[in-house]
Amino acid sequence: MKLVFFDDFKLGVVKDGNVVDVGAAVSGIVHTSPQDLINQVIANFSQHRAALQAAADSGQGKPVGQVRLRSPLPAPGNIVCMAVNYMEDGTRSEPAPINAFHKSPNAVIGNGDIMVLPDVPATIFEGEAEFALVIGKHAENVKPEDAYDYIFGYMGFIDGSARGLTPPGNTFYQMKSRATFAPMGPWLVTADEIDDPLNLSVKLYVNEELKQSYHTSDMAHKIPRIMEWVTSIHPLEPGDVLATGTNHRGLSSFMDGDKVNLEIDGLGNLNFGIRDDLKRTWARTTRLEMAESGKEGTTPQLTGKYS
């Protein structure tokens, strides 16, 4: 099942290219916000699934292109992002030490929204294409062999980044948690629809040009280990998001006017735009292309404030 919020945060199910309003099927759930509603749906999905499916099957629906898709999780309690969690197509000799960081729920935007680049002296703005897990029940000290029992579903996720801010070594908060820096969606796909989450293609296009292209099989610390490690630090709850990291080799600059599309097997296409009121520019060079030319780091800023 593909769950989504649309228009004024109505709950919908995506079926055959249409979004069907299924709010009536869960009208008995007392809730304080769209996130509270979806949390309760997730936590008690076995009770609600039949009614949701019946509503989706009987409803008329509207084509996806005729509604405004919102983030399927408008304000998760936790957004945990794994850091340096890919083998980078075999270029790493061993996995980096397992590590992660929190991203603010206030950074969330949905399909069709705009990521806004702030007036800060970042060396570059990037967006990391990521495959994200959504937690289905209270998860604490999860054993690796039980990890998948705690996963409700999956979705696409972008980890927006303002690189190079100071002080060095203490920048995750201001680099990652900027408003609009967490696009996610376009919908939440229940786990039963994904046969093997470690066998998915992830592609990121910027202005229809392919930039990132990697496979979840290249994940360094796999899903069971991620779940074990994160839940040993703090519990996760229904509706929390755990992003599994990215292959950095295809990362390149985000600039004003860009149209970005994240495509993951079985999870749909997440589209969003970029706005930079300062109109700063960078070359379109990826990190891989920089390395192949014998240069380290990211491509330098070309024009605009802070260049």
Question: How much of the residues is beta strand, in percent?
Answer: 25-35%
Order of helices and strands: EEEHHEEEEEEEHEEEHEEEEHE
Protein structure class: alpha+beta
CATH class of the largest domain: Alpha Beta
Gap from first CA to last CA: 47 Å
Average pLDDT works out at 97
Would you tell me which CATH topology of the largest domain applies?
Answer: Fumarylacetoacetate hydrolase, domain 2
**Named CATH architecture of the largest domain:** Alpha-Beta Complex
- Helicity, in percent? 10-25%
CATH superfamily of the largest domain: Fumarylacetoacetase-like, C-terminal domain
Radius of gyration, CA atoms, in whole angstroms: 19 Å
- Biggest sheet character: 11 strands, mixed
Shape: globular
- Low-confidence sequence ranges: none
For the secondary structure, the number of strands is 18
Total of DSSP H or I helical runs spanning 4+ residues: 5
- What count of structural domains? 2
Description:
This protein is 15% helix and 32% strand. Strands 1, 2, 3, 4, 5, 6, 7, 9, 10, 11 and 14 form an eleven-stranded mixed sheet that branches. Helix 1 packs across helix 2 (45-58). The chain has 307 residues and is of the alpha+beta class. Strand 1 and strand 2 (10-15) form a beta hairpin. It is built from five helices and 18 strands. It folds into two domains: 2-66, no CATH class; 79-303, Fumarylacetoacetase-like, C-terminal domain (Fumarylacetoacetate hydrolase, domain 2, Alpha-Beta Complex), CATH 3.90.850.10.
